[in-house]
Design brief:
Largest sheet: 8 strands, mixed
Distance between the termini: 34 Å
CATH topology of the largest domain: Alkaline Phosphatase, subunit A
Number of helices: 11
Keywords: Signal
CATH class of the largest domain: Alpha Beta
GO molecular function: hydrolase activity
InterPro entries: Alkaline_phosphatase_core_sf, Phosphodiest/P_Trfase
Pfam family, one: Phosphodiest
CATH superfamily of the largest domain: Alkaline Phosphatase, subunit A
Length: 402
């Protein structure tokens, strides 16, 4: 199939033009792909015919991450419709004083412990109402939240090729009707990794973006052959953007504060500090004088960030200026590369959002959407009742056909 024929075929599939069909709840399908660290402006810098076609036959928007703009909190926010402050994954790493346990994203025991996860992820919402759900590496799906796993789920393994993941999704959608999931959420960890290493300004990032677009093209070419193709609403999105380090802004907190005055330190962007008793005010006054950062006591975090009241958050939150890297080392030196976690409203932190299929309007560029909107959007598409969440469903009105 040549490129022009593929784009036409994709357009027909995504607009549901193969056949006119009335859908009921069990006839609807939603497939969501998240590509980690896929900044909103990347498609405009490379050759992305598949994403470009999605924009033409569906809806395109900037997706605003929650604070902090890091991977695990935001993927779980998309899954629950809750801000990190409210669902409990308050950072990629944190300490829970009640459990007396630390959460780190590379700690398999912690990642699979349901006690760390609040709210109701959408795969549980679906299964509870009789809709089968499948997840492939989505944050939170490895833990039996609420004592339950969804019908199909996978333990994260970065060695699985992207095309193999896509083929698994196609295979799930090809299962007999009684076993077939109607909600599929899958994940690819790029272009985040290359953005960290090579910076979001690099040609290497755009090479990776184009590779991912080709994965999508291959995926659609296979999905199009399924009988259920006209009934699928497809969403491709991301958790956050990426910014380039500015070496002159580098901050090593070890130059200002004694490490042994803190129970726990989670540095980076943002940096969250857990001072020992009696040291919070002293550390706060010192940090207020450090260049290129803003420091808050947890109760001072501005309301727009929806952050600061969860008991898992340390007493001091250090937000670096965009491009500033923060470490807490005896000796530190500036890193080269990219990072996220900054002010979630900054343009460099905005992520992609594309949606197309029988439920969506065509060729619409929508104003930016908060990423917690994904949860109620999926619920509306599947005609299931959402659990309590922080999202405003009015944000969805401009996306969907009446």
């Amino acid at each position: 199939m040549n490129k022009n024929m593929f784009v036409l075929f994709l357009a027909l599939f995504l607009t549901g033009s193969f056949s006119a069909c009335k859908t009921t709840r069990q006839e609807r399908y939603v497939v969501v792909l998240s590509m980690d660290g896929f900044r909103d402006d990347y498609p405009g810098r490379g050759h992305t015919p598949t994403l470009d076609s999605l924009a033409k036959v569906g809806v395109r928007a900037s997706f605003v991450p929650c604070f902090p703009s890091v991977t695990f909190p935001n993927h779980y926010s998309m899954a629950t419709g809750l801000h990190p402050n409210n669902h409990g994954l308050v950072n990629n790493s944190f300490y829970d004083s009640t459990m007396q346990k630390m959460y780190r994203i590379k700690d398999r025991e912690a990642v699979s412990n349901p006690a760390f996860y609040g709210g109701e992820p959408v795969w549980n919402t679906a299964e509870r109402q009789g809709v089968k759900a499948a997840t492939y590496f989505w944050v939170g799906s490895e833990a039996p939240v609420g004592g339950k796993h969804n019908s199909i789920w996978k333990v994260f393994d970065s060695s699985v090729p992207y095309n193999d993941r896509a083929d698994s999704v196609v295979a799930w959608l090809s299962l007999p009707q009684k076993q077939r999931p109607h909600l599929v959420m899958w994940y690819i960890e790029e272009p985040d990794a290359i953005g960290h290493d090579a910076t979001p300004d690099s040609s290497a990032v755009i090479d990776k973006v184009e590779e991912l677009d080709a994965v999508l093209a291959r995926f659609f070419s296979k999905v199009n052959k399924l009988d259920i193709a006209p009934k699928i609403d497809f969403i491709v999105t991301s958790d956050h953007g990426m910014a380039t380090f500015v070496p002159d802004k580098y901050v090593n907190l070890g130059d200002y504060l004694p490490r042994d005055s803190f129970k726990f330190v989670f540095d980076g962007v943002p940096t969250v500090l857990y001072p020992k008793p009696g040291y919070t005010d002293t550390a706060y006054e010192i940090l207020k004088k450090v260049p290129n950062i803003t420091v808050w006591k947890k109760e001072e975090v501005p309301a727009r960030y929806q952050y600061g009241s969860n008991a898992r958050i340390g007493d001091l939150i250090v937000l670096p200026d965009v491009g500033c890297m923060v470490q807490f080392r005896d000796k530190g030196k500036p890193w080269l590369g990219g990072a996220h976690g900054y002010d979630n409203f900054d343009p460099t932190m905005q992520a992609i959002f594309y949606a197309s299929g029988p439920s969506f309007k065509k060729n619409v560029t929508h104003p930016s959407l908060p990423n917690i909107s994904l949860y109620p959007l999926i619920c509306r598409l599947l005609k299931i009742k959402p659990a309590p969440n922080d999202a405003d469903s009015v944000n969805l009105d401009g996306l969907l056909k009446k």
